[in-house]
What does this fold into?
Amino acid sequence: MKAFLMYPDRDFDLEQDLPPNEADLSSDLELGTLLRAMASGDKFLLDVARHGLQSGLTSPTEIVYRQHVLADCVAEPGAVRDLYDVAVAAITGERHLFGWTMRDSPDSILYRARQAMQLYLDMFRRLRGIADAQAAGFRSEGFTRFFAMLTEELADEYLAEIDAQIGELEFRRGTLISARLGPGAKGTSYVLRRHPEQSWRDRIPGLNRPGYTFYVPERDEGGMRALSDLTSRGVNSTSSALAQSADHVRSFFEMLRAELGFYLSCLNLRDRLTAEGGPVCFPDPDTPVPVGAGHARLSARGLYDASLALSLEDGRAVGNDLDADGRQLIMITGANQGGKSTFLRSVGQAYLMMQAGMFVPASSFAASVSTGVFTHFKREEDVTMEMGKLDEELDRMSVIVGQITPGCLLLCNESFASTNEREGSEIARQVIRALTEAGIRIIFVTHLYDLAERCFAQHDPATLFLRAERQPGGRRTFRLPAGEPLPTSYGQDLYQQVFGAADQAQTARV
Amino acid sequence: MNPAVPFRSILFEHPDDEVQREDPSMFRDLNLDQVFAAVASGRDEYDLTPFFAAPLRDVRAVEYRHRVQQDLADDALSKAVAEFTLAMREMRENLGLAGRLRERYQKERWFLDAARIYGQAVTALAEALTAIEPGSHGFTAFRRYLTDYTQSETFTGLTADVARVTSALDEVRYCVLIKGNRVRVTRYEGEADYSAEVQHTFAKFAERTVKDYRVGFRGRAEMDHVEARILDLVARLYPEVFQSLDEFCAGHAAYLDETIRVFDREVQFYVAYRDFTAPMRAAGLEFCYPVMSADAKEVSVRGAFDLALAAKLMPKAGAMVRNDFHLTGSERIFVVTGPNSGGKTTFARMFGQLHYLASLGYPVPAGEAGLFLPDRVFTHFEREEDLATLRGKFEDELVRIKGVLDEATGDSVLVMNESFASTTLRDALFVGERVLDRMTALGLLGVYVTFVDELASRNAACVSVVATVAPDNPAERTLKIVRKPADGLAYAAAIAGKYRLTYRQLKERLT
It folds into this structure.
C-alpha cells in the first residue's frame, strides 16, 4: 500500500541521501530561514521540508503532479490536516506502547505486536471515515487515487480479518511446536503449529496417538525457565512475522506522515509569504535542454529572495525581472550591496522550489529544469586553517566539478577573488569556458573587471550582462537591469556610507 | 627424485632442511612482524610462527617449496585444499564438543559428525588430487599416500557406518505440546505452520524489508534437563536409531590418521601466504618466484614493493610505485639519499624483505627477481633510547652495529636505516665511512640509508640511489628510487593544475 502523493510512482524517501552539496546550498542560499518558516517550529516538518526542497525533480510532469496535489491542499486544508493527524496519532501511539524491554523475548514481542496491531486497526477505521466523507472535494490525480486506494484496500471484510487474527494469537489450548534433531541431537527447526481439530479419539486415553507425557515440578525454577525457553523458540518466527507486519503498517503511516507533512510545510510557508504581501505563483517548468542545443529558458517577473522577505521587518523584498531565455552565461557586475547576492539567492531558491513541485517567490517564473543546482560563494575564511584562501576556493570548485553534470546550474559569487585580479580572471575564464561548453549554465557575480570586460568584448549572444544599479548620487535601487561591466564597483560609496560625511568633508578640504 | 621415497612433509623434503632458527628481532625492523602476523591471522590453531623463523639454506629446499606452491596456484587444487582444511577445522570443533558435553546421545552425535566430516574431507581431497595430476615432488608423494589410505579397509568401513547412522537420525521428527508445566512428546503428523498465515494477512503492507524480530537464541551446545528429558523420550519413540549410534561410537574411537593431521597444519604455511597476497595480486601487484643463486652475489629485480606497506594501502595498493634495481660486478651496497618521506626506508625494508621471504621459499613481491640466497639477514635501524642500557643513543647504535658486523659473513644481507642520525654530521660521516668499509671488506650485500650525501660515493662497491617526489604534486610520495648521484631537489606545481582546474584538465574531467 502506497500513498503516492509526492510521486506518481514511488515513495517519498526521507532516508535518501541529500545532494552532497546540500550544506553549501543551504548556507549560500540562506535555506535555513526558508525551512524554518516551512517547519513552523516542528522538528519533523523541518526534516521533511529539507528533503522535499532538495527533491530535484527533473520531469515537468512530476513537478505538475505535485503542483496539483498542493493546489488541493490549499483548497482543503482542514481535511489534509485531519489525515495528517491520524498518521501522527498512529506513530506516537505505537511509540508509547508498553512492552519494549532490554531483553526482548518472543513472548513480549508478540504481546506488543498484538497491541500495535489493535491500535493500527483503529487508525485504519479513522482513515476510512475521512475518505468516505471528504474524497469528493479533491481534484488532483494524486489525491483521487489516494482516496480510492484507502476505500479498496481497507475494506470492511479485511478489517474484520485482522481483528480475528489478533484474537487467535492468545494460544488458549497450549503451544504446539514441531522439531527435528539438529547438530548434537539438540532440537532444532522449531515451528509453531496450528492445533489439529480435536476428534473423539483424542479424548479417550489409550486411543490417541503414541506419546510420552511428563510434568516439570512447579518448584523447579530451572525447569520452568527451560520450558519457557522452548516455548519462545517455538513462537519465535510467528511473533517475528507479526512484529514485522506491524512494522510494515507503521512504515505506511510514516510514509503518509512524511508525504502529507511536506504539503503542510508548503502551506506554512505560503501563509507566511502572502501575509507579508509577497506574491507566490506556480512556475512553468520546461523540459531540460540537451547540451549544445542552447535554448534553455529562464524568465521571471518580480522574483525575490524568500529568505530575505521572511527576515525583513516590513516583509517586502525588491523583486527583479529577468529575461535570460537561451543564455548559457549570465554575468553580473556593478555596485557593492546592489542586490547581486540577493538576486543570485532568489534564482537558486526558485529553481529548488520549482523542482520540489512548490510555488516560487515571484509573480511569474518559467525555466527549463536543471539537473542540479550548485553554488560557489566567497567564504569569509577557512576555519580549519589547513589551506590558504585560494587553495580553499579551488578545492571547493574542484569538488563541484567532480559532481556537476550537463544541464546543471552553477551560481558563482565572487569566485577566485582571493588572488590578484589577473590570476583570478585567468582561472575564472578557463573554468567558465570549460563548464559552459559542457552544457552547464552559469550565473557569475564578479568584481573581476578584467574577466567581465574581456568576456563582454566577445559579444557572445549566449551571454547576458546585468549590472547592479546606481542612481546618480550613489543611491541603490537593488535592481539588476542589463548593462555592460564598468571598471569600478563603487567601493568609495560604501566607504563614505560607513565612515560618514565628516570623513568626506575632511577629504574635500584636502 | 625417486618415486619410491615415502611422503614425509609438504614443507621439508629432508629432515636437515629444518634446522635454522632466525632471531625474530629483525622482523620488526623490516615490518615482517606485521606481514607474518597478517599471514598467520585467523590461523592460531596451526602455530605457523616457528615456520617463519626457519629460513632455508639450500637452493634445492627452496625449489621444493616453489614447486609445491606452483601446484597450489592451480585453482582446482587450491580449492580442494581450502575445502579440506575448512572441513578439518570443523571436525576439530566437533570433537571438542564431543569431549566436553555430558549427555550421552549428544556426545555421540557430535562424534559421529566429526567422523562424517573427516571421511568426506579426505575422500574429496584424494579425488581432487587424482583428477589434477600435480607436478611437484611434494604433492605427488602425498597423493600416493592418500590413494593407499582411502582404499584401506579401515577407511571404507568408517564411511559406510557414518552414512547409515546419520541418515536414520535425520529422519526423526517430533512434536512438543506445552501447556503450563505439562509437556507431551509425540511424533510429528503434518500440522500447519502459523507464521505463514500471519504473513499472508498483512502481505499488502510488506513494501520493503524490515527488521527481523526473531530472537537470536544463544547457540549453546549444552542441553538443559528439560531438553535432555525430551531427547530421552524421542529416543524411546525411535529405539533402533539410537542403538545404532551407540554401536558406531564404540567401534570407531581412533579414526584420525597422523600423516594427514600433519599435512593439514603444514600446508597452511603456503595457503596462508597465498590468501594474504591474493587481494594484492587482484589489485594488480605482481609476485614472482625468484631465481635463487647460492654463489653469484648478483641482484636483479624488477617491479618490487614493500609488502607490509602494500598490505596497509589495500585496497588501493595497485597504484603503488614499484622499484627496479640491480647490483652487478663488484657492486654490493645501495647507499640511499634524498628528501624526507621519499621512500628511502621503504626501499631498505623492501630489500631486506625480498631476501628473507625468498629464503622461506615464498614468492617475493616483485615482477621478476634474481636473488642471492643469504645465510642471514641483519638489520640496523634507529631505535628509541633504551634506558636499561644506560648508554646514549649514538653509543648504543655503535654497540649494536659492532655485534652485527662480528656475526655477519660475506653471505649475509645487512639493511641499515638512518643509522647514526643522532650525532653530528661529521661523526655520522666518519662512522659511516668506517662501517661501509667493513661491509665492503666482508663482501656482503646491503642497503645503507643515510642523510649524509658524501657517503653515496664511498667506494666501488657502493651504488648511489636517490628518493624522488612526484613533480606534479610535491606532497605525494612516489617512493620511486632511481640510480643517480646524491643531490637535494625540491619541486613545486602550478596551483590550478594541482586542483585539476585548467581548461584542458576540465575538458577531460567533464567528458
User: Anything to note?
Assistant: The longest helix of chain A spans residues 221-275. Residues 288-509 of chain A form a domain with the Rossmann fold fold (CATH 3.40.50.300).
